[in-house]
Amino acid sequence: MRVETLSRKTCLRGLVVLIGLAVVLPAEAQTQRPVKITLDEAIQMALQHNHNILAARTTIQQSQAEEITANLRPDPTLLGDAEYLSPTHLNTDYLNNSSEFDLGISYLFERGRKRQHRLLAAKDITAQTRSLVADNERSLSFTVASLFVGVQLAESTLELAEKDLKGFQQTVDLSELSYKAGAISEDDYLKIKLQLLQFETDLQQALLARAQALSDLRQLLGYELVSEDYDVAGAFDYQPLKGNVEDMQMKALQNRPDLRAAQQGVTAAKSQYGVQKAIGKRDVTGQVNYTHTGGVNTASLFGSIQLPIFDRNQGEILRASYAITQAEEQEKATNGQALTDVRDAYEGLRTNDRVVALFRSGYLDVAQKDRDISEYAYKRGAASLLNFLDAERSYRATQLAYRQALASYLQALEQLREAVGVRNLP
C-alpha cells in the first residue's frame, strides 16, 4: 500500500511538472519572438536614436550658446601704477609724501545698441538652425520609409520564392513518378528537374535581399538598440491617394522646413546687416582714476572715442547688404525647388499608380490562369514541356514585376510625402 501511495505521489508530481512546463514554455516562446516594428514606430525610433540626427541637434545647442556670448557686456578694465619709488627710502613718510599711486577703472560703452543687435542676430541663426535640423529629420524619415518598403518588398519576394519552390517541387516529384512509370521521357524529366535550380536560386537571392534590407534599416533605427532578429509589420499593399498637385504644392509651401529655413535665412541676413551698421558706430571708453601724490588725494575722469574719418565699417556693411540679396535669391530658389519636387513626385506617383492598376486590372489573374492551364494540359499530354515551362516563367516574372511595381508606387508615395513635408496626405 505504501509503495502504491508513493507511486501515485510521484505521478502527481510529474503531472504538475509537465503542466508547469506546458505553461512556461509557450510564455518563453512568446517572449523570444522577433520584435515587429511598424513604419511609424521605425520613423520615431530613427528620430530618437539615429546618431547623425542626434549630432545635428547639437548645432541648436551650439547656436543657443552663441546667444549667451552675443548678449555679454564688455568687462571693465582695472588700472594701477606706482611711481617715484626708491629702494633706499621705503618708509611711510616717503611713500605718503614723495611717491605717487594711481588706481583707476575704465569701461567701454557700446553705442548703436550693439549688444541688442548681436543677440537678435544670434537668435535668428538659432531659429534657422532649428529649421535646418527639422529638414534633416524630414530626409531621415524618407530614408527610413524607403528602406522599410525595401524590406517589405524583400519579404514579399521571399514569400513568393518559397511558394513557387514548394509548388514546383511537387511538380518535380510528380514528374519523377511519371518518368518511372514511363509516362514521360527522361529528357522531359531532366528538363523539369533542371528548372528547379532557378527556383532554389531565387529563394537564396530573396533571403539575401531580406537580410541586407533589414540590416540597412537597423542602422538607421539605432544599431545597438534593435535586436538582430527584428522584423517589420505592416501591409505591403496598394494605398490609394486623393488630392491634386496644386493642393500638395500649397501644403509644401506651408510645411517644408528647408523653405522655412531659407525664409529665416533672409531674416538672419538682415539682422547681420543691423549688426554691421551698429559696429560702424564708434564706442566711448570712460575711465575714473584715483591718484595719491604728495600727501594729496585726487580723482580724474577720462574719456576717449575714435573719430570715424576713414573706417566706418563701410566694407562690412556693404557685404552684409549683398548677403541679404543672396539670401533672398536662395529663398526664391528653394521655393521653386519645393514646387518642382512636389510636381515631380506627384507625376511619378501617378505613373506608378497606372502601372500598378494595369497589373491589378487582370494581368495577375491571366498569368495565374495561364500557368494553371499549361500545367493541367502538360500533365495530361495536351501541351508540350516547353509550353509549360514558359508559362511557369511568365507567371513568376509577372508576379515579381507586380511586387516591384507596387514597391515603386509606395516609394513614390514616400517621395511625395517628403516633397510636401508632411506624413499625412489626403
**What is the β-strand count?**
6
Structural class: alpha+beta
What is the strand content?
5-15%
Percent helix range: over 70%
Number of helices: 10
Mean pLDDT: 89
SSE string, helix = H, strand = E?
HEHHEHEHHEHHEEHH
Which outline best applies? elongated
Which residues form runs of ≥5 with pLDDT under 50?
A: 1-8, 14-31
Name the strands of the widest sheet in spatial order: 2-3-5-6
CA-atom Rg in angstroms: 40 Å
Explain how this protein is built.
The protein is α+β, with helices and mostly antiparallel strands. Helix content is 72%, strand content 10%. The chain is built from ten helices and six strands; from the N terminus they run H-E-H-H-E-H-E-H-H-E-H-H-E-E-H-H. It has helices at 2-31, 39-49, 51-70, 92-97, 114-180, 186-222, 245-255, 257-279, 314-379, 385-420, and strands at residues 36-37, 77-83, 100-109, 231-232, 284-293, 296-305. The strands form two sheets. It has a four-stranded antiparallel β-sheet with strand order 2-3-5-6. A hairpin with a 2-residue loop joins strand 5 (284-293) and strand 6 (296-305). Helix 9 (314-379) packs antiparallel against helix 10 (385-420). The longest helix is centred in the middle third of the chain and has 67 residues, at 114-180. It is elongated. Residues 1-8 and 14-31 have low confidence and may be disordered.
